[in-house]
Amino acid sequence: MRSNRTHGMNALVAALALVSARAAAEPAAAEPATEPAATAPASTTQPTPRVAAAPASGARATRATWQEGFMVVPMIGINSILGDSGQNTGPGLRVGLLAGSRLTELFSLNVGFAFDLVNLDVPTGADASRYVLDVGFNPLFHFPLQSLEIVAGPLAGAFVDYGSLGGGGLSVDTWAYGWTAGANAGVLFPVGTKVRLGGLANFHLRNPLNICVTANGRDTCSSNELDSVKTIALSFAAFL
């Protein structure tokens, strides 16, 4: 009897162990294999590049329209003699040239040449001519703006003045030399990276040191109390 009871207990324990093992195995088998979550692809959008702010248009224009180095400025226009020295004269031809170097954006150092053909009012039948040549230093100060450039500066140098008058059997030649002081001023418009076109005004105060007159082979010279001659000119100029 006791042996039967013992075998029954052993069978019950074995059955309980088998059920427990199956119960533990079923949830593990029923649980689906969990796949790792897909990783979202990294964004391929590139950041917007930053663009440096453009400089002010005026500042850009002033730096783009000048070049350091050699500079030549041909000029052609008209001249006029002022005051008492200009009596019996009219507007004449002015031809000039500046040649030098643009040292900085705001300054150039130049040598200037100016040739004036004086328009003389003479009686009918007389033949007269007069020429004046100036050579000097013409530094210029440059003031570049957005759409134009202003130039201004002093001038100092020397001049030679030659004239002749003939008619009625009389021949007279005059010549003089002296020193010159004056000024230049103008407005220029850029038409390229270096070329500028515009107008230039010149004022020459010619102070003679000696004047000689040759009449029929006789020379007469004077160097005392000589009057200055004031001349203005307006010219078309090209800065090359």
What is the topological layout?
Elements (H helix, E strand, L loop, with lengths): L1 H29 L26 H8 L4 E14 L6 E16 L2 E14 L6 E11 L2 E5 L4 E19 L2 E21 L5 E20 L2 E5 L6 E11 L1
Antiparallel strand pairs: 1-2, 1-10, 2-3, 3-4, 3-5, 4-6, 5-6, 6-7, 7-8, 8-9, 8-10
Commentary on this structure:
This protein has 240 residues and is α+β, with helices and mostly antiparallel strands. The protein has helices at residues 2-30, 57-64; strands spanning 69-82, 89-104, 107-120, 127-137, 140-144, 149-167, 170-190, 196-215, 218-222, 229-239. Strands 1, 2, 3, 4, 5, 6, 7, 8, 9 and 10 form a ten-stranded antiparallel sheet that branches.
Content of β-strand: over 45%
Q: How would you describe the shape?
A: elongated
N-to-C order of helices and strands: HHEEEEEEEEEE
Q: Low-confidence runs (pLDDT<50, min 5 residues)?
A: 1-8, 15-20, 27-41, 55-64
Query: Structural class from helices and strands?
Result: alpha+beta
What is the overall pLDDT average?
A: 81
Distance from N terminus to C terminus (CA atoms, Å) equals: 136 Å
Query: Radius of gyration over alpha carbons?
Result: 49 Å
Percentage of residues assigned to helices: 10-25%
- Helix count from the secondary structure assignment: 2
Largest sheet: 10 strands, antiparallel
Strand segment count: 10
